[in-house]
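## retry 2 of 3
previous attempt timed out at serialization; input unchanged, resubmitting
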Amino acid sequence: MNDLDLVRDLRSQVRLSEEHDLHGARRHLLAAMAPSPKSRRTVPRMVLRVAAVGALGLAITAGVTVVQNIGTDGRGKGITSAPAWLPVANAEILAKRATAAAGGAEDTYPRADQWIYFKNDIYSSPKATPKSKVPPIGGGKSGSRYTMEGWARGDGKKTAHRAEDGTLITAAVNQPDRKPLQHDLAYLRSLPLEPSALLERLKKGDTTSGSSRLEAIAVFHQAQMLLQEVTPPPRLRAALYTTIARLDGVGMEEKVRDLAGREGIGIYLDDQGFRHEIIVDPNTYAFFGVRGLYLSGKRTPDGRMFSKGEVVYSTARLADGIVDHAGSIP
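## retry succeeded, writing output
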């Protein structure tokens, strides 16, 4: 990543000092220089002049100071990300900040005998299943909201989940029949961190052919599935954000609330009347969850009727981590 691009982005978002900003400081400076009656007890004139000049300098350099501090902590050491209060203009800038926040640290993956733990809050609309009995959009139980706790072993050979009665159910994975997605940690480790290479790798899993639009939709859904099902570590997660941000038709929406009520930033792609959205923590750039919205109020080709803006599916990541045993919590 080019750090200068980040600095230019941040500098462009800081308001430059305007003429009216300087008038007030100039008035203070002139007032401090004006003679005052000797009978009054005053602060030494030199102190007032220094204070006024300082105020003028602050007005001129307020925006510059923010930009100069990006990239260092004041002691010459690098910082990991831009201040969260700076606005995010688009999905690509969000991806750049996530990359900076991930820093140069190595991503941590579980050992072969360890497990990835995740806990999700899941909602699926009762209308998410069409009359053709296709599984619900977004997965899960149609017409319900529930919490799911799951584990995936580091060697990719076993998964586990907690049943509604609290029982831990473990299942072996039939490797020859599996696609390299959903809890396949070997596949996760093999993914490149360079966005262009990662894009080409994700394209290999695309079974569609034809327009670049269909290709973008397929790649977006693959990245969405990886974020939701496999819990990528920070550097790979940032690379996925960057890859998504570069797809045709991708947009960004601020102040989006996930199923758990947390406010995040949404990266979305529209497809045949549906908006598929990935929600990101605006402070840490962690993955908050996904949701799908119906954009129009028209009936779908398979006969379903959604209200405009209705949530069709939504998943919020409540917790995740690496543990030594299935059933354990970080």
